[in-house]
Amino acid sequence: RVSGKKGRQPEPSAARGLKAESESRRVEAERVSERRRKAAVSFEKVRVCCDRAPAAKERMEESIYNLIPMGEALSDAEKRRSSQIYKSVYSDKVRKDLAAAKAPGQTMGPAVVEHPSADQYLKRGQGIPRKTVPAEPRTFQVTKPAVPKRDEHPPMPSHHSKDYLKENAVAAITALSKKPQQTVVLDSAGSRQPLEKSGLVPVYSKKKEFGKTPDYLQRRKEEEQREQIEYNTYVKAVQDQSAHQKLSTDERDAILQGLRANKEKLHREYQGLSVMVDTVSKRARKKKMEDELAQLEADIDKIEKHTAIYVEK
Known about the structure:
There is one protein chain. By secondary structure, this protein is mainly alpha-helical. It is 49% helix and 4% strand. Helix 6 runs antiparallel to helix 7. The two termini are 127 Å apart.
């Protein structure tokens, strides 16, 4: 297929494949030649080093200590740099003091120890003497009485005419017979249990304390009453000293009746409000009446709960 424009015609797919293969071969050949060139340069460097090795061996012996050049081989710059290093004037004195404080063989012993002869072996009593603690004298406490002497006569037991056999027989005859223990059978296999522990007998209700107030509750009640009396006495003393007086029963009843009357009157007015609350004034009036009713109810409840009411003089 020939394009409409004049010029170079498109190559077929086989030609493009051969061209790419030849290009890759050329790149691979360049890489191999570069590696060979580098290997030749390295080999040349090694050969030069091998040629110089005898001269270097004469000048420096192969040793790890010869890695650092000696004083003769130092350059002028290195000698100048080493001469500029600070050196303390007290270094020699410090070395002498440190050496004087050390003792040879202080911890590990002397380096060379003279071995004793085989004939001079350690005999009994020649070693380090062992420290012995003197034993405390033992004291024995005599618990038994001393043996009576020949002319002493110990007290003899008193003889009595009590007949133990007769007394045991009388006690056995006059003793009450033992009552059999009441049991209850639990199942058909014959398992038994004491009747008192089975719960079938009213044991708790037969006690003396059943149905009575416990002692600790009575004590607690007495303590509360005593504390209430003390508190009332204290409050009365404080109120007498302060500017408050207690309302009488008649005054309290009169105030309570007046509050109830005001509540009834305000409740009737509240019932007479219009059903439609569509203006601002109506809503405000309703809200005010509801607040007054709530306050009256709270005052009435407070007065009804408390019998003693104090007011300022």
